[in-house]
Write a structure and sequence with these properties.
The protein folds into 2 domains: 161 residues, Bacterial polysaccharide co-polymerase-like, CATH 3.30.1890.10; 121 residues. It contains 9 helices and 5 strands; from the N terminus they run ααβααααββαααββ. Strands 1, 2, 3, 4 and 5 form a 5-stranded antiparallel sheet that branches. The longest helix has 62 residues. The protein starts with 6 loop residues before the first helix and ends in a 12-residue tail after the last strand.
Length: 336
């Protein structure tokens, strides 16, 4: 057997329970109104951050650099700032500075009290990213002054922590630059000593000129040898020119010996010239690298004493005036 259901039957049921439904709705509404009247009022303070570009603190961006440097950071910089503000170190600092254990009435001696304190703090300390590339920090508390002070102190302490991270990185970079300068100076000292010894031991005064002089002398000796050989061969055909033939054969032998000697000298000279040029090129490269490192070091030194902001702009919050109930987001009003 089947039973037919229709809208008429539903209306009949609602009509029969009309009185009970109305009483229930009115009772719940009245109870909610009474509870909202007796529940404590919360105040909400907000501050907004825009992450700065970390390249502003990078000495390699200074000097001869044609690439543009932007004031605002990217998503990675925003994530880095987000991690700093939402860290346990930030929470512990704020809890200790504003004595929130007594403010929230938690026991500070036991682990359970510390856990509850941190959870209660995090529920009223909210950090989010806006669609405009900013961080929005919202702090809620029953005391409007404490809410504003916590928001402003979080902003200030975030700057302190970010400054510390930047300065630590700069000190490490400066130490690396100093180490590299010492290393380059040692390399340049060795190369300079090698260049000096090569020039002194092999009389390498002006390498290019000496190389051309050796080559010219060798060419001249080879030409004289060829000429003496030709004359000796010519005079050997005539019995009456026997003395001339012997003389030019002697010349040919002398020039041949000279050619061999010059070839050996030129061979040794070329090998040492190659070593000298290699050493001079290495010295030139080391000098260029040392100059670049010294320039970066000189740029890095002033940055250690300069206050660099981790964010390009932030809104410092005053005391909130409008009330909000954090348990009902629809009633959560922003202070002016």
């Amino acid at each position: 057997m089947t039973q037919d259901y229709s809208m008429f039957s539903v209306l009949q049921v609602l009509k029969e329970w009309k009185r009970a439904i109305i009483i229930s709705v009115l009772s719940v509404g009245a109870l909610a109104a009474i509870l909202s009247l007796f529940s404590p009022n919360y105040y909400k303070a907000e501050t907004v951050f825009y992450a700065a570009n970390p390249d502003l603190a990078d000495p390699s961006q200074l000097g001869y650099n044609d690439s543009p440097t932007y004031m605002y950071g990217g998503s990675d910089d925003l994530d880095r700032l987000f991690s700093i503000i939402s860290s346990d170190r930030m929470a512990d600092h704020l809890i200790k500075k504003f004595q929130l254990f007594s403010h929230y009435e938690f026991d500070s001696t036991g682990n359970e009290g510390k856990f509850k304190m941190r959870e209660a703090f995090k529920s009223n300390f909210k950090l989010s990213k806006s669609k405009y590339g900013a961080l929005v920090l919202a702090v809620e508390d029953k005391d409007p002054e404490i809410a504003a002070k916590i928001a402003n102190e979080a902003r200030n302490y975030a700057e302190v922590l970010a400054q510390k991270f930047i300065k630590d990185a700069q000190r490490k970079a400066l130490g690396s630059y100093r180490h590299n300068i010492q290393k380059q100076d040692s390399v340049m000292l060795v190369l300079a000593d090698s260049i000096r010894r090569l020039k002194e031991n092999y009389n390498l005064i002006e390498a290019n000129y000496q190389q051309r002089a050796f080559a010219d002398e060798l060419i001249k000796a080879m030409a004289n040898k060829a000429e003496a050989g030709s004359r000796a061969q010519y005079y050997s055909k005539y019995e009456s020119k026997r003395d001339s033939s012997i003389k030019y054969r002697a010349y040919e032998a002398g020039y041949s010996s000279k050619v061999n000697e010059l070839q050996q000298k030129l061979g040794r000279f070329n090998s040492k010239i190659s070593e000298l040029k290699t050493a001079e090129q290495a010295y030139s490269r080391a000098t260029d690298q040392s100059s670049i490192i010294r320039e970066r070091k000189s740029c890095c030194l002033p940055l250690l004493t300069v206050r660099l902001l981790p964010f390009t702009w932030s809104m410092r919050h005053g005391c909130p005036r409008k009330k909000a109930d954090p348990k009902d987001p629809s009633l959560c009003l922003y202070p002016c």
